[in-house]
């Protein structure tokens, strides 16, 4: 009997010790891992109240849209991510088309884009090379054990082989858009980073010189030689840790040359800001529109595919390209549901749509794709 008690006490002690170690490891990770980024200085934060989108110490959406999940909805979301969902990830690795550094360096004057999956792009416009939301990591999370892997085992080009970059645009600080590992490998190649208010603090914490960071509020713009960059609204939220929700701003972006006008939606729920952007700065030759990771549990911060097409009409886009899909599982729908539904809705609205393969260069003046319905094969 005494031997049994000793075994039970030993097991309890082991369990308590294990829990304590997990708690300590979690605490250290949360407080010391560079993945969580940085915080704005007091001097920087003193500027935020000047923004119409900053209230009571946090950034806000137009109309104070509620972004909070109830406890019950949070449990539903967690259960949905844990349980197996048929076809939520591809059955096989998605093969990417390849592009090399010499092709990028020697590319001519026509505007072209290369999609890296999800919301990441390489854009060449007006003889400038630009990256948009360059999340090139394998898992969109602060630790590999906390997320699902990328659907493609390879990128169109390895980060190390990407040549000098004129500008990088960041839409917000979520892990599937702002990646610590990618920034570490890119930062010495980039002339200027453009971010919404507050996001620059993460870049500074990761070693980017403050002089190379430009933070903008909604409706602000800057010129870069013959290009104009405009920071425009989105309906979303931000945060990388457990206590920094809405401490940085989120945005969409406009990139305009003397002859072409491009819109990048970032992450956003469907709302009136799209129409406002279209009326103020449209029409757009191409709009890169969020389409994926939606759910009825969070309808205000991500668009359903039909709303993506409607937003394309609102911003007065000649053609849209659905993004925010094809790379990661971050919701409960099948991996092809976004592109199938948005294509159907765009056709019903008479809206142009392109769906290129990952890594396929798309020239803006032709928008020719080698395999428009590639996901079906």
TrEMBL record:
Q: Which Gene3D superfamilies match?
A: Ribonuclease Z/Hydroxyacylglutathione hydrolase-like (3.60.15.10)
Organism classification, top ranks?
Bacteria, Pseudomonadati, Bacteroidota, Cytophagia, Cytophagales
Key word Transmembrane helix present in the record?
Answer: yes
Q: Which GO terms describe its cellular component?
A: cytoplasm
Keyword annotations for this protein?
A: Membrane, Transmembrane, Transmembrane helix
- Membrane-spanning intervals of the chain: 7-32
What are this entry's molecular-function GO terms? N-acylphosphatidylethanolamine-specific phospholipase D activity; zinc ion binding
Task: Tell me what this protein is called.
Answer: Membrane protein
Metallo-beta-lactamase domain location is 117-324
Q: Which domain of life is it from?
A: Bacteria
What Pfam families does its record include? Lactamase_B_2
